[in-house]
Write a structure and sequence with these properties.
Strand order of the largest sheet: 5-6-7-8-12
GO biological process, one term: chromatin organization
Strand content: 25-35%
Number of strands: 24
Largest sheet: 5 strands, mixed
Radius of gyration: 22 Å
Keywords: Chromatin regulator, Repeat, WD repeat
Family: Belongs to the WD repeat RBAP46/RBAP48/MSI1 family.
Protein name: Histone-binding protein RBBP4-like N-terminal domain-containing protein
InterPro entries: Histone-bd_RBBP4-like_N, WD40/YVTN_repeat-like_dom_sf, WD40_repeat_dom_sf, WD40_rpt, WD_repeat_RBAP46/RBAP48/MSI1
Order of helices and strands: HEEEHEEEEEEEEHHEEEEEEEEEEEEEH
Number of helices: 5
Shape: globular
Structural class: mainly beta
Length: 379
Amino acid sequence: MKERGKSGKPSVDERYTQWKSLVPVLYDWLANHNLVWPSLSCRWGPQQETATYKNRQRLYLSEQTDGSVPNTLVIANCEVVKPRVAAAEHISQFNEEARSPFVKKYKTIIHPGEVNRIRELPQNSKIVATHTDSPDVLIWDVESQPNRHAVLGAAESRPDLILTGHQDNAEFALAMCPTEPFVLSGGKDKSVVLWSIHDHITASATDSGSGKSPASASKSGGDKAPDSLAVGPRGVYQGHEDTVEDVQFCPSSAQEFCSVGDDSCLILWDARAGTSPATKVEKAHNADLHCVDWNPHDENLILTGSADNSVRMYDRRNLVSNGVGSPIYKFEGHKAAVLCVQWSPDKASVFGSAAEDGLLNVWDHEKVCIFCYCLSFLL
C-alpha cells in the first residue's frame, strides 16, 4: 500500500481498496475479467442475443503485449444480466484476479502494432476501425477475419481496408459517423481526414486482383493473403497548429464534425463549405485538449476535456468564426488531465469524464443550473 502524500489525501491504492469494499452496495451486478495483458482500448459492440434473464453483448478490446507475443484485437461476447436479476451472493464474491464466466473470447486478430483506439461502424455491426502507431486507419470485418493464435512469430492479420491520407502518425483521434459509413481521423500532421468506406467499391473496380477482401482470400487461398485494399480520403482539413487528439461527428450530419488538439483549439468543420474551419475557438482551454464529444440529444452542446484538469461545455450557437467562444459551464472536479468525456446515450444532461487522477466522474449539468440559480437567488 502506498503511503499518503503530504496533503493527507488517499493514494490511488487506498481509493481502490475503498472502492472494492463498496462494490456490493454500488452496483446491482458486476462482472470482473482479469486480462493477461493491459488493454489500451475497450468498446461495446452490438447486442447479439436477448434472453429471458440476460443479453449477449459484443465487446471489443485490445491487448498490449511486451513483444513476447503479438499485439491483438480481441472480439468477445459478454453475458449481461437484466435489471433486478442479479444475485447478491455473486457481487459479494468480487475478486479482481478472477476471469469472469460471463466474458467469453470469440475471436482474436493479430494486430499490426498496438491498438490505441477502436471504433465500431453504426451502419454495419461487423465493421470496426482501429488506430495504431502509423498514419493509416485500419478497417476490419470481424466476422470474415480468421481467428488467429497470438504466438511468437505469427504473421499479422490483414485488414480488410487501409484508409490512407495522413502524412504522419495518427494514433488516437478516430470517429465513425452515426448517419453514413464515414470515418474521421486526426493525427500528428495537424490534419483531420475524412473517408467514406463506400469508396472502396470504386477502388475495387480498378483493382487488378480477384475482388475478394483480404480476409476472405486468406481463408480460401492458402497462407499468403494479398495486400489490403487502400482507400484515399474524401477530404483533408487543415486548421490546427499541433497534433489533433480527438474528433467527433455531429450526431445528425455526415458533413459536420469537430476536432480538438494540443494547440488548445476546438474547431467545427462543415465539409460542404470546403476544407477550412467553419468555426475555430482558439483558446478553448488553458492547456492541450485531449477529448471531445457531441451531445446526441442536443446538437448545440459539445464537451471538451483538457490537460488543465477541467471539462468545459460549449453551445455552438455562441461560437463565432473569429476565434472567440466562451464555455457555458466549466466542470472542475478532477485533479489531473482529463482524457475522456462522453455524453449519456439515455439522458441529454448527463455525461461522464475520466482523468489521470484515476477517477470516473458522472455529471448532470441540469443540476448545475439549478444550483447556480439558487446560489444567485440567495446572494
